[in-house]
Design a protein that fits this description.
The chain has one domain: Metallo-beta-lactamase, Chain A (4-Layer Sandwich), CATH 3.60.15. Helices cover 33% and strands 25% of the residues. The protein has 10 helices and 15 strands. Helix 5 packs antiparallel against helix 6 and helix 7 crosses helix 8. 50% of the residues are buried. It binds zinc ion.
């Protein structure tokens, strides 16, 4: 298994500089980040799941964006996005999170011992609680010479506390995990109807030219990434309208989306869709157990992530 690569993808060279930091392959517990650099500040969108990967990310932020004041925007409270927040704020700065994610982000790293086996988390500490502020509605972040919008997604979508970041000059939307590309989405902590509403709302509100998804490569102008997400989420609802043979349906999903990585997530998503549309409460632990059973047991991150992050500049 090759090491995970972190690809630095410049989307806008002039200030504000806009950079996607894309991890490949899109593996379990590997997520994208990015940064937007103004004259006076830099907004970092999401950290990494481990100390080492976060330190690598910060080194690149400082190398390319300089030493300006750091604001970390946490798109949601899944560990591969926020575990490194305490690491990122060791030398100062502040963070923004959606109200629905605030408590988990302040509580610090999540290593999901029931899901993963892993030995190389490094030293991960929670952020200072006063450094993390909630964002409700739309918050304009002034980076010096340019502003970006940090926007809380209404309702529950991928999780109950999702944020997106929009940079209007380049038309770039950092979507967090509202968009996956080439990687099976993970919906057990969210709401399928709410996620569909959020995708419509994002498209109508921003009409973004470029998307930086939470997992997978950048979607460039002319992309169909929103559409592809909608097709999948609508299929989940359609498939579970009358059927609850989740294993059989998950097999159908794997055949329908054969190129997506991590197909073991389909079964958890189907269980979420069934619960959502039949007015039932999903037993999330049960859904995770079904995902792990489909994966053949707990996910071994030591073998998936490789030993050292490698970097490449596009
Ligand atoms: Zn997530």
């Amino acid at each position: 298994m090759p090491a995970v690569r972190s690809n630095i993808v410049p989307l806008r060279h002039a200030r504000p500089g806009v950079v996607a930091y894309v991890k490949s392959p899109a593996e379990w517990f590997v997520a994208n980040s990015g940064w937007i650099q103004g004259a006076e500040g830099v907004a970092l969108i999401d950290t990494c799941g481990t100390e080492q990967a976060t330190l690598e990310l910060l080194r690149d932020v400082r190398k390319y964006a300089g030493e300006q004041e750091l604001t970390v925007v946490i798109t949601h409270a899944h560990g591969e996005h926020h575990n490194g927040l305490g690491v990122a704020l060791r030398d100062g700065g502040s963070a923004l999170a959606a109200p629905g994610s605030l408590d988990q982000v302040k509580a610090g790293p999540q290593t999901y011992g029931n899901v993963f086996t892993y030995t190389r988390w490094g030293a991960l500490e929670p952020p200072a609680p006063e450094a993390v502020r909630p964002v409700t509605g739309r918050h304009e972040l002034d980076l010096g010479g340019a502003a970006v919008d940090v926007v809380a997604v209404p309702g529950t979508a991928h999780t109950a506390g999702d944020l997106v970041v929009h940079e209007p000059r380049s038309g770039t939307l950092f979507t967090g995990d509202l968009v996956y590309i080439g990687d099976t989405p993970m919906a057990v902590h969210g709401s399928i109807p709410g996620w569909l509403d959020a995708l419509h709302w994002l498209q109508d509100t921003f009409r973004p030219r470029t998307l930086v998804p939470g997992h997978g490569p950048v979607a460039t102008p002319g992309h169909t990434a929103f559409h592809a997400m909608r097709v999948y989420l609508e299929w989940l609802l359609e498939a579970t309208t009358r059927q609850s043979n989740f294993a059989k349906l998950a097999k159908q999903a794997s055949l329908r989306w054969p190129s997506w990585r991590n197909p073991e997530r389909h079964i958890g998503n189907l269980m979420r869709a069934y619960a959502d549309q039949h007015g039932r409460k999903l037993d999330v632990d049960l859904a995770i157990d079904a995902v792990l059973a489909a994966a053949g047991g707990r996910i071994d991150l030591d073998s998936l992530l490789g030993s050292e992050p490698a970097r490449r500049i596009s």
